[in-house]
Amino acid sequence: MRDMPISIQHHYSLLKHNTFAMDVKAKQFISYKSVDELIEVLNTLRKCGERILHIGSGSNLLFTKDFEGTVLHSDIKFIEEVSRDDQHILFRVGSGMVWDDFCAQMARDNYYGSENLSYIPGEVGASAIQNIGAYGVEVESIIHEVETIEVATGLPRVFQTNECEYDYRDSIFKNNLRGQYIVTAVVFRLSLIPKVNLDYGPLQAFKSQEGVPTAKAIRDAVIDIRRSKLPEPSVLGSAGSFFKNPVIPVEAYQEIAATYADVPHYMVDDRHIKIPAAWLIEQCGWKGKQHGGAAVYEKQPLILVNMGNATPDDIIELAALIEQSVKEKFKIQLHPEVNYI
Ligand SMILES: Cc1cc2nc3c(=O)[nH]c(=O)nc-3n(C[C@H](O)[C@H](O)[C@H](O)COP(=O)(O)OP(=O)(O)OC[C@H]3O[C@@H](n4cnc5c(N)ncnc54)[C@H](O)[C@@H]3O)c2cc1C
Fold this sequence. Notes:
Elements: E1 7-13, E2 25-32, H1 35-48, E3 52-55, E4 61-62, E5 67-74, E6 79-84, E7 88-94, H2 99-108, H3 124-130, E8 133-134, E9 137-138, E10 143-150, E11 156-160, E12 181-191, H4 215-229, E13 237-241, E14 247-249, H5 250-259, E15 266-269, E16 272-274, H6 277-283, E17 290-291, E18 294-296, E19 303-306, H7 312-330, E20 339-340
Parallel strand pairs: 2-5, 3-5, 4-20
Antiparallel strand pairs: 1-2, 6-7, 7-12, 8-9, 10-11, 10-12, 13-19, 14-16, 15-16, 17-18, 18-19
Helix pairs in contact: 2-4
Protein backbone atom coordinates (compact mmCIF):
# COMPACT_ATOMS: atom_id res chain seq x y z
CA MET A 1 0.00 0.00 0.00
CA ARG A 2 1.22 3.48 -0.85
CA ASP A 3 1.27 6.17 1.83
CA MET A 4 0.73 9.01 -0.61
CA PRO A 5 -1.12 9.09 -3.95
CA ILE A 6 0.99 9.52 -7.10
CA SER A 7 1.39 13.22 -7.85
CA ILE A 8 -0.43 14.14 -11.09
CA GLN A 9 -0.57 17.76 -12.34
CA HIS A 10 -2.64 18.99 -15.29
CA HIS A 11 -1.76 21.86 -17.68
CA TYR A 12 1.46 22.07 -15.77
CA SER A 13 4.16 24.70 -16.36
CA LEU A 14 7.56 23.17 -17.16
CA LEU A 15 9.36 26.44 -16.41
CA LYS A 16 11.08 25.01 -13.33
CA HIS A 17 11.82 21.72 -15.10
CA ASN A 18 14.13 23.00 -17.83
CA THR A 19 17.34 24.96 -17.31
CA PHE A 20 16.77 26.97 -20.52
CA ALA A 21 13.76 28.39 -18.62
CA MET A 22 11.27 27.95 -21.47
CA ASP A 23 7.78 28.73 -20.21
CA VAL A 24 5.92 25.86 -21.87
CA LYS A 25 3.21 23.58 -20.49
CA ALA A 26 2.67 19.83 -20.35
CA LYS A 27 -0.86 18.43 -20.69
CA GLN A 28 -0.04 16.24 -17.69
CA PHE A 29 2.98 15.91 -15.35
CA ILE A 30 3.50 12.84 -13.17
CA SER A 31 6.25 12.37 -10.60
CA TYR A 32 6.63 8.80 -9.26
CA LYS A 33 8.57 7.58 -6.24
CA SER A 34 9.11 3.87 -6.90
CA VAL A 35 9.38 1.30 -9.68
CA ASP A 36 5.95 -0.07 -8.74
CA GLU A 37 4.40 3.38 -9.11
CA LEU A 38 6.10 3.79 -12.50
CA ILE A 39 4.71 0.46 -13.74
CA GLU A 40 1.21 1.43 -12.54
CA VAL A 41 1.46 4.80 -14.32
CA LEU A 42 2.73 3.21 -17.55
CA ASN A 43 -0.12 0.66 -17.52
CA THR A 44 -2.67 3.47 -17.26
CA LEU A 45 -1.00 5.66 -19.91
CA ARG A 46 -0.71 2.71 -22.30
CA LYS A 47 -4.48 2.13 -22.15
CA CYS A 48 -5.12 5.77 -23.18
CA GLY A 49 -2.45 5.71 -25.92
CA GLU A 50 -0.87 8.74 -24.27
CA ARG A 51 2.32 10.33 -25.65
CA ILE A 52 5.09 10.11 -23.05
CA LEU A 53 8.24 12.14 -22.39
CA HIS A 54 10.51 11.25 -19.49
CA ILE A 55 12.63 14.09 -18.15
CA GLY A 56 15.27 14.51 -15.48
CA SER A 57 15.98 18.09 -14.47
CA GLY A 58 15.66 19.33 -18.07
CA SER A 59 19.27 20.49 -18.31
CA ASN A 60 19.76 19.12 -21.82
CA LEU A 61 16.35 19.89 -23.27
CA LEU A 62 15.01 22.64 -25.48
CA PHE A 63 11.22 22.70 -25.28
CA THR A 64 10.14 24.15 -28.62
CA LYS A 65 6.42 24.25 -27.72
CA ASP A 66 3.85 22.93 -25.21
CA PHE A 67 4.00 19.16 -24.77
CA GLU A 68 0.68 17.54 -25.69
CA GLY A 69 1.13 14.43 -23.60
CA THR A 70 2.39 13.21 -20.23
CA VAL A 71 5.75 14.26 -18.87
CA LEU A 72 7.14 11.71 -16.40
CA HIS A 73 9.73 12.41 -13.72
CA SER A 74 11.51 10.02 -11.37
CA ASP A 75 11.57 10.82 -7.68
CA ILE A 76 13.34 7.53 -6.89
CA LYS A 77 16.10 8.62 -4.54
CA PHE A 78 18.60 6.37 -2.78
CA ILE A 79 22.30 5.50 -2.74
CA GLU A 80 23.08 2.00 -1.48
CA GLU A 81 26.31 0.04 -1.35
CA VAL A 82 26.00 -3.22 -3.30
CA SER A 83 29.38 -4.87 -2.82
CA ARG A 84 33.11 -4.26 -2.56
CA ASP A 85 36.39 -6.09 -3.10
CA ASP A 86 40.02 -5.02 -2.65
CA GLN A 87 39.88 -2.51 -5.47
CA HIS A 88 36.30 -1.52 -6.20
CA ILE A 89 33.05 -0.56 -4.54
CA LEU A 90 29.66 -0.78 -6.24
CA PHE A 91 26.78 1.61 -5.50
CA ARG A 92 23.21 1.31 -6.73
CA VAL A 93 21.70 4.77 -7.16
CA GLY A 94 18.07 5.81 -7.78
CA SER A 95 17.43 7.58 -11.10
CA GLY A 96 15.93 10.65 -9.43
CA MET A 97 19.05 11.43 -7.37
CA VAL A 98 20.71 14.71 -8.29
CA TRP A 99 23.89 13.69 -10.12
CA ASP A 100 26.14 16.04 -8.18
CA ASP A 101 24.80 14.85 -4.81
CA PHE A 102 26.07 11.39 -5.76
CA CYS A 103 29.46 12.85 -6.85
CA ALA A 104 29.71 14.79 -3.57
CA GLN A 105 29.18 11.63 -1.51
CA MET A 106 31.72 9.63 -3.54
CA ALA A 107 34.35 12.38 -3.21
CA ARG A 108 33.66 12.82 0.50
CA ASP A 109 34.44 9.12 1.05
CA ASN A 110 37.44 9.27 -1.36
CA TYR A 111 36.07 6.79 -3.88
CA TYR A 112 37.57 7.58 -7.29
CA GLY A 113 35.79 7.76 -10.65
CA SER A 114 33.13 10.46 -10.53
CA GLU A 115 35.21 13.46 -9.34
CA ASN A 116 35.93 14.86 -12.86
CA LEU A 117 32.19 14.74 -13.55
CA SER A 118 31.34 16.87 -10.52
CA TYR A 119 28.84 19.69 -10.81
CA ILE A 120 27.34 18.54 -14.12
CA PRO A 121 23.66 19.49 -13.80
CA GLY A 122 21.00 16.80 -14.02
CA GLU A 123 19.94 13.54 -12.46
CA VAL A 124 21.40 10.04 -12.27
CA GLY A 125 18.90 8.46 -14.71
CA ALA A 126 19.82 10.89 -17.49
CA SER A 127 23.57 10.46 -16.87
CA ALA A 128 23.29 6.91 -18.21
CA ILE A 129 21.24 8.02 -21.23
CA GLN A 130 23.53 10.91 -22.13
CA ASN A 131 26.90 9.34 -21.29
CA ILE A 132 27.81 12.61 -19.60
CA GLY A 133 31.43 13.62 -19.77
CA ALA A 134 33.87 16.29 -18.66
CA TYR A 135 37.59 16.84 -18.21
CA GLY A 136 38.66 13.63 -19.93
CA VAL A 137 36.15 11.27 -18.25
CA GLU A 138 32.85 9.84 -19.48
CA VAL A 139 30.35 8.27 -17.13
CA GLU A 140 30.41 4.96 -19.04
CA SER A 141 33.82 4.34 -17.41
CA ILE A 142 32.11 3.91 -14.02
CA ILE A 143 28.74 2.44 -15.06
CA HIS A 144 28.39 -1.22 -14.13
CA GLU A 145 24.77 -1.73 -15.17
CA VAL A 146 21.60 0.22 -15.89
CA GLU A 147 18.22 -0.84 -14.48
CA THR A 148 15.23 0.04 -16.65
CA ILE A 149 11.55 -0.53 -17.23
CA GLU A 150 10.33 -1.09 -20.78
CA VAL A 151 7.66 1.47 -21.65
CA ALA A 152 5.67 -0.88 -23.94
CA THR A 153 5.40 -3.76 -21.46
CA GLY A 154 6.23 -2.44 -17.98
CA LEU A 155 8.81 -5.24 -17.68
CA PRO A 156 12.23 -4.74 -16.06
CA ARG A 157 15.43 -5.09 -18.05
CA VAL A 158 18.99 -4.66 -16.83
CA PHE A 159 21.52 -3.42 -19.41
CA GLN A 160 25.18 -4.29 -18.95
CA THR A 161 27.52 -1.44 -19.92
CA ASN A 162 28.57 -3.15 -23.16
CA GLU A 163 24.90 -3.34 -24.23
CA CYS A 164 24.45 0.43 -23.88
CA GLU A 165 26.52 1.24 -27.01
CA TYR A 166 28.13 4.21 -25.33
CA ASP A 167 29.88 6.79 -27.46
CA TYR A 168 30.63 10.51 -27.19
CA ARG A 169 27.48 11.92 -25.42
CA ASP A 170 25.59 9.03 -26.95
CA SER A 171 24.02 5.67 -26.11
CA ILE A 172 21.60 3.09 -27.45
CA PHE A 173 18.88 4.93 -25.46
CA LYS A 174 19.30 7.97 -27.73
CA ASN A 175 19.25 5.90 -30.92
CA ASN A 176 17.72 2.43 -31.57
CA LEU A 177 15.95 2.29 -28.21
CA ARG A 178 14.99 5.96 -28.01
CA GLY A 179 12.01 6.47 -25.68
CA GLN A 180 11.59 2.72 -25.17
CA TYR A 181 13.16 2.29 -21.71
CA ILE A 182 12.98 4.32 -18.53
CA VAL A 183 16.03 4.22 -16.28
CA THR A 184 15.07 3.53 -12.67
CA ALA A 185 18.53 2.99 -11.13
CA VAL A 186 22.19 2.86 -12.14
CA VAL A 187 24.90 0.72 -10.56
CA PHE A 188 28.26 2.52 -10.50
CA ARG A 189 31.68 0.98 -9.93
CA LEU A 190 34.07 3.32 -8.11
CA SER A 191 37.74 2.69 -7.38
CA LEU A 192 38.96 2.29 -3.81
CA ILE A 193 42.53 2.88 -4.93
CA PRO A 194 43.52 6.24 -6.39
CA LYS A 195 42.85 6.27 -10.13
CA VAL A 196 42.90 9.78 -11.53
CA ASN A 197 42.63 11.56 -14.88
CA LEU A 198 44.52 14.86 -14.70
CA ASP A 199 45.20 15.37 -18.40
CA TYR A 200 42.78 18.26 -18.84
CA GLY A 201 44.47 21.74 -18.79
CA PRO A 202 43.88 23.23 -15.33
CA LEU A 203 43.86 19.81 -13.61
CA GLN A 204 47.45 19.20 -14.79
CA ALA A 205 48.62 21.42 -11.91
CA PHE A 206 48.00 18.41 -9.62
CA LYS A 207 50.69 16.49 -11.52
CA SER A 208 53.45 18.72 -10.16
CA GLN A 209 52.29 18.18 -6.57
CA GLU A 210 53.59 15.41 -4.39
CA GLY A 211 51.37 12.33 -3.96
CA VAL A 212 48.02 11.53 -5.54
CA PRO A 213 45.30 14.13 -4.95
CA THR A 214 42.20 13.04 -3.08
CA ALA A 215 38.95 12.65 -5.01
CA LYS A 216 37.65 15.61 -2.98
CA ALA A 217 40.59 17.85 -4.02
CA ILE A 218 39.96 17.06 -7.69
CA ARG A 219 36.21 17.60 -7.26
CA ASP A 220 36.82 21.02 -5.64
CA ALA A 221 39.16 22.03 -8.49
CA VAL A 222 36.63 20.89 -11.11
CA ILE A 223 33.85 22.89 -9.40
CA ASP A 224 36.06 26.01 -9.33
CA ILE A 225 36.84 25.66 -13.04
CA ARG A 226 33.19 25.07 -13.94
CA ARG A 227 31.97 28.03 -11.85
CA SER A 228 34.46 30.33 -13.57
CA LYS A 229 33.51 29.23 -17.10
CA LEU A 230 29.90 28.08 -17.22
CA PRO A 231 26.67 29.94 -16.59
CA GLU A 232 24.84 29.00 -13.38
CA PRO A 233 21.43 27.72 -14.60
CA SER A 234 19.64 29.48 -11.73
CA VAL A 235 21.09 32.83 -12.92
CA LEU A 236 21.30 32.49 -16.71
CA GLY A 237 19.23 29.89 -18.57
CA SER A 238 21.11 27.43 -20.80
CA ALA A 239 21.38 23.74 -21.56
CA GLY A 240 25.17 23.55 -21.40
CA SER A 241 27.05 22.81 -24.62
CA PHE A 242 24.53 23.39 -27.37
CA PHE A 243 26.48 21.58 -30.11
CA LYS A 244 28.60 18.43 -30.17
CA ASN A 245 32.27 18.83 -31.05
CA PRO A 246 32.48 17.70 -34.69
CA VAL A 247 34.66 14.76 -35.66
CA ILE A 248 36.03 15.23 -39.19
CA PRO A 249 38.31 13.29 -41.57
CA VAL A 250 42.03 14.11 -41.32
CA GLU A 251 41.97 15.58 -44.87
CA ALA A 252 39.24 18.08 -43.91
CA TYR A 253 41.28 19.08 -40.86
CA GLN A 254 44.39 19.61 -43.03
CA GLU A 255 42.41 21.90 -45.30
CA ILE A 256 41.36 24.06 -42.32
CA ALA A 257 44.88 23.98 -40.79
CA ALA A 258 46.34 25.32 -44.05
CA THR A 259 44.51 28.61 -43.33
CA TYR A 260 44.28 28.45 -39.53
CA ALA A 261 47.56 27.00 -38.28
CA ASP A 262 46.41 27.29 -34.65
CA VAL A 263 43.16 25.29 -35.00
CA PRO A 264 42.80 23.24 -31.79
CA HIS A 265 42.31 19.54 -32.47
CA TYR A 266 42.33 16.10 -30.84
CA MET A 267 43.08 12.83 -32.63
CA VAL A 268 40.12 10.44 -32.39
CA ASP A 269 41.71 7.64 -34.43
CA ASP A 270 44.15 7.37 -37.38
CA ARG A 271 41.63 8.91 -39.78
CA HIS A 272 39.52 11.27 -37.67
CA ILE A 273 40.10 14.47 -35.74
CA LYS A 274 37.84 16.29 -33.27
CA ILE A 275 37.64 20.09 -33.50
CA PRO A 276 36.12 22.13 -30.64
CA ALA A 277 32.79 23.51 -31.84
CA ALA A 278 33.43 26.54 -29.59
CA TRP A 279 36.48 27.49 -31.68
CA LEU A 280 34.52 27.19 -34.94
CA ILE A 281 31.70 29.34 -33.55
CA GLU A 282 34.11 31.96 -32.25
CA GLN A 283 35.93 32.11 -35.60
CA CYS A 284 32.57 32.90 -37.21
CA GLY A 285 32.27 35.93 -34.92
CA TRP A 286 29.37 34.69 -32.80
CA LYS A 287 30.85 35.09 -29.30
CA GLY A 288 28.61 37.36 -27.22
CA LYS A 289 26.19 37.99 -30.13
CA GLN A 290 22.46 38.26 -29.35
CA HIS A 291 19.43 37.17 -31.38
CA GLY A 292 16.11 38.21 -29.85
CA GLY A 293 16.26 37.09 -26.22
CA ALA A 294 18.90 34.43 -26.94
CA ALA A 295 22.67 34.92 -27.02
CA VAL A 296 25.98 33.14 -27.46
CA TYR A 297 27.57 33.06 -24.00
CA GLU A 298 30.46 35.51 -23.94
CA LYS A 299 32.78 33.28 -21.86
CA GLN A 300 32.09 30.08 -23.80
CA PRO A 301 30.62 30.31 -27.31
CA LEU A 302 29.47 26.69 -27.28
CA ILE A 303 26.73 27.68 -24.86
CA LEU A 304 23.56 29.45 -25.97
CA VAL A 305 21.86 31.37 -23.18
CA ASN A 306 18.44 32.79 -22.43
CA MET A 307 18.97 36.47 -21.59
CA GLY A 308 15.68 36.42 -19.67
CA ASN A 309 12.97 36.69 -22.29
CA ALA A 310 14.06 34.23 -25.00
CA THR A 311 11.36 32.31 -26.82
CA PRO A 312 12.03 28.80 -28.18
CA ASP A 313 12.12 30.37 -31.68
CA ASP A 314 14.89 32.80 -30.66
CA ILE A 315 17.07 29.86 -29.65
CA ILE A 316 16.15 27.68 -32.63
CA GLU A 317 16.90 30.54 -35.05
CA LEU A 318 20.19 31.45 -33.37
CA ALA A 319 21.32 27.82 -33.49
CA ALA A 320 20.38 27.59 -37.18
CA LEU A 321 22.28 30.80 -38.02
CA ILE A 322 25.38 29.47 -36.24
CA GLU A 323 25.15 26.12 -38.04
CA GLN A 324 24.83 27.93 -41.37
CA SER A 325 27.86 30.17 -40.87
CA VAL A 326 30.08 27.31 -39.62
CA LYS A 327 29.00 25.29 -42.65
CA GLU A 328 29.78 28.15 -45.02
CA LYS A 329 33.16 29.01 -43.51
CA PHE A 330 34.51 25.54 -42.62
CA LYS A 331 32.29 23.09 -44.55
CA ILE A 332 31.49 21.42 -41.22
CA GLN A 333 27.94 20.54 -40.17
CA LEU A 334 27.39 21.12 -36.44
CA HIS A 335 24.90 18.84 -34.68
CA PRO A 336 23.02 19.84 -31.52
CA GLU A 337 23.90 18.06 -28.28
CA VAL A 338 20.68 19.48 -26.81
CA ASN A 339 17.48 17.45 -27.26
CA TYR A 340 14.80 19.42 -29.12
CA ILE A 341 11.33 18.55 -27.78
C1 LIG B 1 25.37 24.75 -17.34
C2 LIG B 1 25.36 23.35 -17.90
C3 LIG B 1 26.55 22.64 -17.98
C4 LIG B 1 26.56 21.34 -18.50
N1 LIG B 1 27.75 20.67 -18.55
C5 LIG B 1 27.79 19.40 -19.04
C6 LIG B 1 29.01 18.67 -19.08
O1 LIG B 1 30.07 19.15 -18.68
N2 LIG B 1 28.98 17.42 -19.60
C7 LIG B 1 27.83 16.83 -20.05
O2 LIG B 1 27.88 15.67 -20.48
N3 LIG B 1 26.66 17.49 -19.98
C8 LIG B 1 26.61 18.76 -19.50
N4 LIG B 1 25.42 19.44 -19.47
C9 LIG B 1 24.19 18.80 -20.00
C10 LIG B 1 23.34 18.09 -18.93
O3 LIG B 1 23.74 18.46 -17.66
C11 LIG B 1 23.42 16.57 -19.08
O4 LIG B 1 23.05 16.16 -20.37
C12 LIG B 1 22.54 15.84 -18.04
O5 LIG B 1 22.82 14.46 -18.05
C13 LIG B 1 21.06 16.04 -18.27
O6 LIG B 1 20.40 15.53 -17.14
P1 LIG B 1 18.89 15.86 -16.83
O7 LIG B 1 18.49 15.09 -15.61
O8 LIG B 1 18.68 17.32 -16.74
O9 LIG B 1 18.18 15.24 -18.10
P2 LIG B 1 17.14 15.93 -19.11
O10 LIG B 1 17.78 17.09 -19.78
O11 LIG B 1 15.85 16.15 -18.43
O12 LIG B 1 16.98 14.74 -20.17
C14 LIG B 1 18.03 14.37 -21.02
C15 LIG B 1 17.61 13.13 -21.84
O13 LIG B 1 17.51 12.01 -20.97
C16 LIG B 1 16.17 11.45 -21.01
N5 LIG B 1 15.89 11.00 -19.63
C17 LIG B 1 16.00 11.74 -18.50
N6 LIG B 1 15.78 10.95 -17.42
C18 LIG B 1 15.50 9.71 -17.88
C19 LIG B 1 15.18 8.44 -17.27
N7 LIG B 1 15.13 8.28 -15.94
N8 LIG B 1 14.94 7.38 -18.09
C20 LIG B 1 15.00 7.52 -19.44
N9 LIG B 1 15.29 8.67 -20.07
C21 LIG B 1 15.55 9.75 -19.30
C22 LIG B 1 15.29 12.58 -21.52
O14 LIG B 1 14.14 12.07 -22.17
C23 LIG B 1 16.24 13.27 -22.50
O15 LIG B 1 16.27 12.56 -23.71
C24 LIG B 1 25.36 20.73 -18.94
C25 LIG B 1 24.15 21.45 -18.81
C26 LIG B 1 24.15 22.73 -18.31
C27 LIG B 1 22.84 23.48 -18.17
